[in-house]
Design brief:
The protein has about 260 residues and is an alpha/beta fold. It has one domain (about 1-240): Vaccinia Virus protein VP39 (Rossmann fold, 3-Layer(aba) Sandwich), CATH 3.40.50. The protein is built from nine helices and ten strands.
């Protein structure tokens, strides 16, 4: 119980307690979101991005399977009609999954047993344990889009399960992001392949929580091969980050952004 409380406190301090982070986050995500837009946070955790996106005037669907953090999200945003909290995981198909929870470091809780095995050998994960398992419902991005509309932006940070989440999407989105972890390099490449399967995209990379673009390959959006080359260069540094993607040469047509609209 003590480790669990300490883990929650650690997440709150990490994601809400750093001065200036919310300001930087609003400035960064303002490139993708504005008033009235829909944003989807897959792996919402402690809700720091939900908070920033609401400050931009966006409507938010926060997807989070961890029961402790579902309670936190409802505590923080339960009275806000522009925030919908979904206590579920996302995957390739509807059903259920076993969520492995790390009490001390809940930010790395995951439904991917393969990812846990992969990162367990990394020096940064030597003290991480996934002590608890809980069965959680699983839905898909396609079902979420059908219910809530096409989001202007979708962030996916689910500890190695990103490719499976993207496998539940059958159309490109205007913009999305997924996590890159050097210790699980192949998982990011699998997620990239899923995005490219939806059509050609362009990409940028942002190192972990900096809210700045990596410019080592120039101040521009990259194609898939250029992104892979960039990640190969970043990999030895061992620092994680996020890959941002948007369709190349077009935007999702407005008629499919709001279900039920003629």
């Amino acid at each position: 119980m003590l480790a669990r409380a300490a883990g929650i406190a650690r997440s709150l301090a990490m994601y809400h307690g750093i001065p200036g982070r919310q300001r930087r986050m609003r400035a960064f995500y303002g490139q993708f979101l504005g008033p009235g837009d829909l944003a989807v946070d897959v792996g919402a955790h402690a809700g720091n991005r939900v908070r920033a996106w609401r400050a931009l005037g966006a409507r938010v669907v926060a997807v989070e399977p961890q029961p402790d953090f579902v309670r936190l999200l409802r505590l923080f945003f339960g009275r806000d009609p522009q925030v919908t909290v979904l206590p579920t995981a996302l995957g390739a198909a509807p059903g259920t999954a076993e969520l492995g929870i790390s009490r001390a470091t809940p930010t790395v809780s995951t439904v991917s047993s393969a990812w846990r095995e992969t990162v367990s050998g990394d020096a940064g994960f030597t003290s991480v344990r996934w002590q608890d398992t809980v069965t959680v419902p699983v839905t898909t991005l396609d079902e979420l889009v059908a219910a809530h509309g096409v989001p202007a932006f979708c962030k996916i940070d689910v500890e190695g399960f990103e490719a499976e989440v993207l496998a539940g999407l059958s159309r490109p989105l205007p913009a999305l992001s997924f996590e890159y972890l050097p210790a699980a390099h192949d998982a990011a490449l699998a997620a990239l392949a899923r995005v490219e399967a939806l059509g050609p995209h362009r990409y940028r990379y942002s190192p972990i929580e900096t809210m700045r673009w990596d410019t080592t390959a120039g101040d521009r959006w990259l194609d898939a091969d250029e992104l892979v080359a960039l990640l190969d260069r970043r990999r030895p540094a061992g620092r994680s980050g996020d890959v941002y993607a948007r369709p190349h040469g077009g935007v999702v047509s407005p008629e499919i952004r709001h279900p039920g609209r003629p």
